[in-house]
């Protein structure tokens, strides 16, 4: 595999990085990029038996003994993370439990907070930890709406989603704001913990937008998360859900993986919210790209939702990615072509 060269990393090469939820769409690429850079990776999963493909997969790419799995089946159990983080130098906290369709934000916070605090406290008590990145969400900062033009700042939070969820607005009108409000409130709780506990390690959050791009191993992972929306569009299924997604921005799977590497290892990156808001997209445009890629196939039409016009603080994140790969965010056409490539690998 192509080697990833880092310039003066704050974490020495050959150190161990733990990637939580390592079998996921984003996390598997994060593990891959750290391995490519010369680190060892410990991947936490809920079930080693269900993820048994991962160790031989990475051994084939980077040699034996570079990647190991650790099982954390109950995220919130007392001491669940103590042994998992033992001896690690960096933490890419990507795993989460909440689904996008949640309705009770307080119940979701009650479920997620013990898990997150358990991980944070375990890392605070582990002297080897030098840097931690926590995964938030673009929706923690805003609600996509191409009919409005807003300016986001580094510390913008989605107070509107919280207000809607606390209101008497009918449930069917709240849409995905439950998840948005949950991610906003959870991230604020985490930053409050950092300010109060003052851990010795560097701490940053990453706010991923819609994730497009290649799947690391389609045969074992399938087409996950929002890449699955592209698969559905191509196949003409669940189009109501696809059509409901507003025009916004996306982040490529490999770009966001590089951002985790940069956030954990680049000198001077500390106490920041990194907006993983890449280039713009709409599913109307995605449908056009798919049709161009497969002219022999009839791709369903998706109503034109307009185009995102918001100003977002994504330059810092793009600069960090550019420093590692030599160019900025991936183009939409490139990421959709890569999804199609992953789908065809799965079908072959």
Quick take:
With 348 residues, this protein is of the alpha/beta class. The chain has 13 helices and ten strands.
Average of per-residue pLDDT values: 96
Any idea what the shape is? globular
Percentage of residues in helical conformation: 40-55%
What order do the helices and strands follow?
EHEHEEHEHHHEEHHHEHEEHHH
Tell how many strands the DSSP assignment holds. Answer: 10
Catalogue the unreliable spans. none
Q: Largest beta sheet: what is the strand line-up?
A: 3-2-1-4-5-6-9
Task: Name the beta content range.
Answer: 5-15%
Folded structure, characterized:
42% of the residues lie in helices and 13% in strands. 45% of the residues are buried. Helix 3 (105-124) packs parallel to helix 6 (177-197) and helix 10 crosses helix 12. The protein has helices spanning 25-37, 54-62, 105-124, 159-166, 171-174, 177-197, 218-221, 227-235, 239-244, 253-265, 283-293, 315-325, 332-347; strands at residues 16-20, 40-45, 67-71, 90-93, 131-135, 202-208, 210-212, 248-252, 273-276, 280-281. It is α/β, with parallel strands linked by helices.
For this entry, give a set of tags:
seven-stranded parallel beta sheet; 13 helices; 348 residues; globular
Topology of helices and strands:
Layout: E1 16-20, H1 25-37, E2 40-45, H2 54-62, E3 67-71, E4 90-93, H3 105-124, E5 131-135, H4 159-166, H5 171-174, H6 177-197, E6 202-208, E7 210-212, H7 218-221, H8 227-235, H9 239-244, E8 248-252, H10 253-265, E9 273-276, E10 280-281, H11 283-293, H12 315-325, H13 332-347
Parallel strand pairs: 1-2, 1-4, 2-3, 4-5, 5-6, 6-9, 7-8
Antiparallel strand pairs: 8-10
Helix pairs in contact: 1-10, 3-6, 4-6, 10-12, 11-13
């Amino acid at each position: 595999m192509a080697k990833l060269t880092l310039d003066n990393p704050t974490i020495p090469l050959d150190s161990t990085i733990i990637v939580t939820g390592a079998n996921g769409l984003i996390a598997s690429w994060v593990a891959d990029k750290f391995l490519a850079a010369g680190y060892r990776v410990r991947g936490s999963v809920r079930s080693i038996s269900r993820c048994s493909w991962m160790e031989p997969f990475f051994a084939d790419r980077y040699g034996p003994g570079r990647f190991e799995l650790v099982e954390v089946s109950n995220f919130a159990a007392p001491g669940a993370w103590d042994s998992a983080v033992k001896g690690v130098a960096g933490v890419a906290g990507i795993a989460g439990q909440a689904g996008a369709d949640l309705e009770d934000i307080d119940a979701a916070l009650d479920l997620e907070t013990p898990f997150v605090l358990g991980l944070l406290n375990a890392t605070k008590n582990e002297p080897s930890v030098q840097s931690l990145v926590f995964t938030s969400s673009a929706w923690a900062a805003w609600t996509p709406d191409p009919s409005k033009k807003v300016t986001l700042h580094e510390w913008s939070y989605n107070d509107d989603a919280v207000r809607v969820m606390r209101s008497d607005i009918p449930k069917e009108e709240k849409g995905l704001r439950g998840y948005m409000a949950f991610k906003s409130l959870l991230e604020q709780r985490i930053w409050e913990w950092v300010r109060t506990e003052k851990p010795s390690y560097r701490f940053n959050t990453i706010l991923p937008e819609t994730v497009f791009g290649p799947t690391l191993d389609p045969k074992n992972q399938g087409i996950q998360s929002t890449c699955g929306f592209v698969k559905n569009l191509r196949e003409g299924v669940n189009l109501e859900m696809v059509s409901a997604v507003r025009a916004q921005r996306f982040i490529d799977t490999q770009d966001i993986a590089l951002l985790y590497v940069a956030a954990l290892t680049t000198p001077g990156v500390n106490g920041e919210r990194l907006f993983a808001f890449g280039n713009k997209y709409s599913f109307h445009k995605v449908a056009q790209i798919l049709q161009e890629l497969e002219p022999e196939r009839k791709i369903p039409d998706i109503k034109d939702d307009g185009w995102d016009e918001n100003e977002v603080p994504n330059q810092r994140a793009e600069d960090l990615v550019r420093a590692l790969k030599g160019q900025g965010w991936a183009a939409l056409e490139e990421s959709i072509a890569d999804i199609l490539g992953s789908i065809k690998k799965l079908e072959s």
